[in-house]
## 1
Amino acid sequence: MDPPAGCCFHTRCPYAIERCRAEKPALTESDPGHWSACHRSAELTLEGALEFGAAGA
Ligand code: SF4
């Protein structure tokens, strides 16, 4: 196990920016009961998971 510096997903995340490579994101509560550890969680609107959930049911 040798995770990369910064966000552990930055080597395969299509939304990674320079900050992702340098700084590990903190776990923060964006809405009551909804937590994320992503530098871009407040600016990205990703509907892929919702679409997958609807199609994969
Ligand atoms: S912090 Fe968010 S945008 Fe950046 S690499 Fe990690 S998951 Fe992707």
## 2
Amino acid sequence: MSDLDLKEPVARQAQPDAAGAPVAPVSPVDAEALGVGKSFGETPIFSDVSFRLARGEAVALVGANGTGKSTLLRCLMGLIPVTSGSVRLLRQDVAAARTAELRALRARIGLVSQRHNLVPRLSVLSNVVQGLLGRHPGPRHWSHVVAPGASRDAAMAALRKVGLEEFALRRADRLSGGQSQRVAIARAIVGGPELLFADEPCASLDPAAGEDVMELFFRLVRDEAVTVVFTSHNIDHALKYGDRVLGLAHGRLQLDATAASLAASDLRGLYD
Ligand SMILES: Nc1ncnc2c1ncn2[C@@H]1O[C@H](COP(=O)(O)OP(=O)(O)OP(=O)(O)O)[C@@H](O)[C@H]1O
Ligand SMILES: [Mg+2]
């Protein structure tokens, strides 16, 4: 046996990819629910909900009114405590996190809700600056007037991304619904979140404006490889924008499948 014969397998072991051997993709898990249950008082809403979200994945959460989609999002974000099970976000156990840790964790997370929840009398720019409050708590991030230059610049950059740069100094209550929702998106992304939660991000909009907002939202999150959980009553949106679809019905997670493997008719069963 020559030296060459001996070296070859050793080199292969050290460099399995170079040798062409298939290597399992290692995708970090950004969110994980393990047996999560939630009750309000004696009323159970859902139980035993488990799933994992890989980095950069977009997951649609669907289900009929009142099945607990918003409640599950709030549990995932640590805004309300779970009744059973546990949630891990960005490799941290949410329930075990101390106040300061939870604040630091929330600063890495963005939220867009159905009603944009902008502060009506403040400027568009101030509303977006407030998206940095998780990272910079305190009065300097209440208004664009007193915000540090870097934060104002970041807010302007976020407004540019949603196409509303020229509306920066307009009062938030002088915007259309579609514009308001774009500002809410700018506010959610201004801090460069790793994880975004969107609760019916276009439910208050007409179909055309809703489609625009979804297109924009998902273009931005795909560009930045952000992990997204969104709820929607629009089955087409769930299948078009979600990589995966989770379905809540009758207090359980009844569906967890890739969007590519589903047809609209598969989701209609959740609403029976
Ligand atoms: N703070 C609360 N206290 C008591 N019950 C609550 C609370 N929040 C939500 N619920 C109840 O929990 C259930 C689930 O509500 P949730 O808002 O999560 O549903 P949803 O799936 O988001 O519905 P929708 O599609 O209408 O937005 C409902 O029956 C609701 O009344
Ligand atoms: Mg809801």
